[in-house]
Amino acid sequence: MPLKQGYSQRTIRSNIRTELKAGRPMKQAVAISLNTARKAAAKAGHPARAPRKGRKG
């Protein structure tokens, strides 16, 4: 199933769930979802709204 194009929290959460169901590890699912959201935000002309994966520590 293809991922949804969008950068809202709801869309990102849905894409993570889709990737997890496909058997991907959690970190990889998050990275793929955030990358998809970043591309969608840039395409929509809202690059400042693109989510960034924060680092802890």
Written overview of the protein:
With 57 residues, this protein is an all-alpha fold. The chain has a domain at 9-46. It is built from two helices and no strands. Helix 1 runs antiparallel to helix 2 (26-44). The longest helix has 19 residues, at 26-44.
Record keyword descriptors for this entry.
single chain; 57 residues; mainly alpha; globular
- Beta-strand segment tally: 0
Q: Give the count of helical stretches.
A: 2
Largest sheet: none
Order of helices and strands: HH
- Alpha carbon gap, first and last residue: 35 Å
Cα Rg: 11 Å
Which structural class fits the helix and strand makeup? Answer: mainly alpha
Low-confidence stretches: none
Secondary-structure blueprint:
Layout: H1 9-21, H2 26-44
In a nutshell, what does this entry contain?
The protein is mainly alpha-helical and 57 residues long. The protein has helices spanning 9-21, 26-44.
